[in-house]
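User: For my dataset I need records formatted as: sequence, then structure tokens, nothing else. Please produce one.
Assistant:
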Amino acid sequence: MSVHMHRSRQWMACFLGAAALSPLALSLGSPLPLAPPSVVTGRVTFEGRPVSDMTMCLDRGGMHAAYAHLRDDGTFDLISQAWTDGGAQPGRYRGHLYTHAHGPRMPSRFADPATSGIEIEIASGWNDFRIDLQ
């Protein structure tokens, strides 16, 4: 038997094994149990005026974890990237702002989580933040 045929059988066995184990893996759920998300609300202002028509994104570990659309009065309700019912996992986050096409012009430092100055610590339960950008 050729080496090529042997390799093909090995790959087929791997695929069949993975397919057989997939339903078992899905039924077990996540190996890391997560706490229920915390409700997060707040208001963002820049030089004392509400920031609106923008999206605030919160990053954790260098990845987007949650976002919020800023309303006309600067208020927001945070929506998690991992949960469909809103909120976010407790922990420390760095934020940054995305300007929409017709949104306000903000200094470019607010577009980068490393320079925006937006850092929040979300605790269990309900959190309400006042973020005044300078």
